[in-house]
């Protein structure tokens, strides 16, 4: 089992990073009821961990017995039927899914599932009606229509099910949906907190730590706890016992992007652009999301730039990222950004060195 | 299995005024409407004003006071989440409007005026075609049906419809009235709010009573019965002032790396960029030490970034761009990248 899963806190009491939030959540569900919730925060901050722990707090250990299902849905929409297949993770008490996986048909999925859940409302021994919890991941990736229909279904079926939404950036969630939920911001753990967690894991695993090693990993992880733990484990696999100056493992795609960045800075010509295109394609076919590529590339390029150029480059990065969202084919916009960068950089070089 | 408690009821619904005269802070509207209620003679109505000022409450209260137990059969309520395309106007609304009703004693013995009401909530989100289709319907059935339009922006209602209605403007609630209502709810629910938190609540809700009550309830659920202003900030999703202030200061120094670090921290803390934008905007506009031109420059880029966010652009990049643009404007650097 990966350390990320092995050391994931299972209950609200054991959560160490977001102590205060966990306590508040515990109070919130002390009457075995909760409003709709919306968790937001950067990835690797602990949203999912908190949600799972919260479910356990509400329903007891039953919430942990999950089964993964690949469920086909047949949805009647007016005159035609739509087939959607979606992976759900469910227990007796909750259903978890990524509605955005259904692409443009996400609207139907959202409505259909909630309706189905509302129909099979659980009743306990005393005959009181209970509720189920629907966990929806990546709501920020849902289409506007799906979010609109979510808002309506949330009200109609609020008696039978509670909805827990989970997303990275709350700006992309409709105000109307947000205002119907209790919003909970999950911040990324600080570097010190990451170091604490890593040291805790090391103690449990019985590992010897050289000075400052966990600090380096924490530094590299960009305040992303999941990445820090994965990286820590990778380091252990690579070389143990740790040496004093062992570097923290970087991901290979990040190294690859940093190579691309040096390529771009070293030479600005159509030939080089063509070469870089091949490399970018390589990244894209390996399923690295284009916006991540662009962000990382910007980050790497920024390291090599004078501060007067940084303004302009970051402006164009924002500009092409926006265009990428509006457009269809990401490679065009990535390449446009690189070409733009080359032209700016070359102009700068000529102006400075003649 | 977890049973449902009555505590899950929304306070917004629980404390919604039931009578027109209880509606807070809208004296002119209340006065005019009380008159019409007494005579039982109602014109078509158009309520407009910012959210959370009592428009829907007033409309529902009128309907309840007029019809009492007959409410179900006499009132059709449609809001934005219902389908309201031109087809619905042509069929559902028209069918409902066309039914004739008698006056006087109905079987329940309640004295009803001889008409029905159709409440169209959030009418500004109706398409222009649908609104046009309503024009004739309104006139044809005006004997038996009154319309009540509710919207935020009166300019989105087409002129022919607006001119057929008596218009009522709802104004944002002032602080005294708001605190009065909040304190009343606090007393009923047994929630303690210190004076600091009370001022904070009225300032973050910006005259929107519904928002204030929602925040209050969220905070009460999460933090128990004693609420401080920090609790309110965290449930409302408002970014603490210091965070925006330090971003602004970083921009003023003219050092790009400093601003970049601030931006990364903000994103890592999970603050929503759209909220940062609106608070940064407030700060820039209220600043006294920068020129109008600088303000305009920064605001322009803020507006563009906000649009980009709505299109789904990345928060980090947009925020970084706004910060870099603000820095260039504040420090009088060259604005090279004009498009």
Which features does this protein show?
heterodimer, A: 354 residues, alpha/beta, Rossmann fold, Zinc Finger, Delta Prime, domain 3, 3 domains, 7 strands, 52% helix, B: 339 residues, Helicase, Ruva Protein, domain 3, two-stranded antiparallel ribbon, 9 strands, 9% strand, disordered N terminus, DNA_pol3_clamp-load_cplx_C (chain A)
How many domain regions of chain A? 3
- Structural class assignment of chain A: alpha/beta
User: Helical proportion of chain A?
Assistant: 40-55%
3D shape of chain A: globular
Radius of gyration of chain B using CA atoms only: 25 Å
Percent of residues in β-strands of chain B? 5-15%
Strand arrangement across the biggest beta sheet of chain B: 2-5-6-1-7
Write a concise synopsis of the structure shown.
The complex is a heterodimer of chains A (354) and B (339). Helices cover 52% and strands 13% of the residues of chain A. Chain A is α/β, with parallel strands linked by helices.
Question: Could you characterize the architecture of this molecule?
Answer:
The complex is a heterodimer of chains A (354) and B (339). With 354 residues, chain A is an alpha/beta fold. Chain A has 3 domains: 3-185, 3-Layer(aba) Sandwich (Rossmann fold), CATH 3.40.50; 191-238; 252-353, Up-down Bundle (Zinc Finger, Delta Prime, domain 3). Chain A has 14 helices and 7 strands. Chain A has helices at 3-6, 19-28, 47-59, 106-119, 144-156, 175-178, 191-205, 213-221, 225-238, 252-266, 270-285, 290-303, 307-326, 330-353; strands at residues 37-40, 67-77, 80-90, 94-97, 132-137, 161-167, 182-185. Chain A has a 7-stranded mixed sheet with strand order 2-3-4-5-6-1-7, sandwiched between helices. Chain A is globular. Chain B has 339 residues and is an alpha/beta fold. Chain B folds into 3 domains: 26-169, P-loop containing nucleotide triphosphate hydrolases (Rossmann fold); 175-236, Helicase, Ruva Protein, domain 3 (Orthogonal Bundle); 241-331, Zinc Finger, Delta Prime, domain 3. Helix content of chain B is 55%, strand content 9%. Chain B has helices at 11-14, 27-39, 55-67, 71-74, 86-98, 128-140, 159-162, 175-189, 195-205, 209-223, 229-236, 241-253, 256-268, 273-286, 292-310, 315-330, and strands at 45-48, 75-78, 104-105, 111-112, 116-120, 145-151, 166-169, 192-193, 226-227. A 5-stranded parallel sheet of chain B has the order 2-5-6-1-7. Chain B is globular. Chain B starts with 10 loop residues before the first helix and ends in a 9-residue tail after the last helix. In chain B, 41% of the residues are buried. Mean pLDDT of chain B is 83; it is low at 1-6. Chain B: It is found in: Nucleus. Chain B: It comes from Picea sitchensis. Chain B: One of its GO terms (molecular function) is ATP binding. Chain B: Keywords: ATP-binding, DNA replication, Nucleotide-binding, Nucleus. Chain B: This is AAA+ ATPase domain-containing protein. Chain A: Its main location: nucleus.
